[in-house]
Amino acid sequence: MEYVVSFTLLVALLAWVVSSYLRLFHLYEQVQGAWTAWSRAARRRNECLVEFVNTFAGRLPEGDVLPRDIRHWAEDSCRALDATPAPPRPGGTVCLNMAERHLRRAVSGSLHTVENTLSMQDDELLQSLCSAVSVSLYRQDELTALYNRSAGEYNSALSGPGAGLVASVFGFSPVEPVR
Q: Which pLDDT tens digit goes with each residue over 55-111?
C-alpha cells in the first residue's frame, strides 16, 4: 500500500514538474516570437529611415546635423539588435533602449520639420516617406507592447510557486522588457 502512495506522489510530482516546464517553455516561445517580430520591425524601420534621411538631407540647409544624428542612432539601433539576437536578459537592453530613445527624438524632430516647412509640405516623395516612417513607428509601438506583455507574463510565471525550481533546473531565466 505504501508503494502505491509513494508511486502516486511521485507521479503527481512528475506531472507538476512537466506541466511547469511546459508552461514556461510555451511562455518563452511566445516571448521569443514577439522579440523576433519586434527585431524584424525595428530593422525594417531603420531601413525606411535611411531612405527618409537620404531624401530629407537633400532638402535641408548644408551642414544640418539632424540627418547625421538619425543615421547615427539608426546604426546604433542596428548594432544593439545584432548584439541581442534573443530576448534580452535583465540589463541587456541598456544600449538598445538608449539608441531607440535618441532615434525616436531625432525622428520626431525630423517629422516636425517636414510638417512645418512649406517647401517640404509640397514635396510628395518626402511626404510619402514621412508616412512610411510614421507607419513603421506605429507598428514598432504595437510590437513593443506585445513583447513587453509577453515578457511580463513569462517573468511572472518564473516567480510563481515552485517555478523557480523548474526554471533553475531547465535554465529558464527572466527577460527584460524594451522601453
A: 888 877 776 777 778 888 888 888 888 887 778 877 777 878 888 888 888 888 888
Cβ–Cβ < 8 Å for 31, 154: yes
Residue given cell 533553475 in the structure block: 168
Sequence-distant (6+) residues with CB within 8 A of 92 are 84, 176
Residue 145, pLDDT above cutoff 80 = yes
pLDDT tens for each residue of 39-59: 999 899 888 888 888 888 887
Q: Which of 48, 33, 29 is nearest to 143 (CA)?
A: 33
CB 178 within 8 A of CB 100: yes
Contact 16, 162 (CB under 8 A): yes
The overall longest dimension of the chain from CA atoms, in Å, is 89
CA 42 vs CA 19, 30, 45, 137: distances in Å: 34, 18, 5, 9
Cβ neighbours of residue 166 closer than 8 Å, sequence gap 6 or more: 17, 20, 21, 24, 172
Helices 2-59 and 94-116: angle between axes, nearest 10 degrees: 40
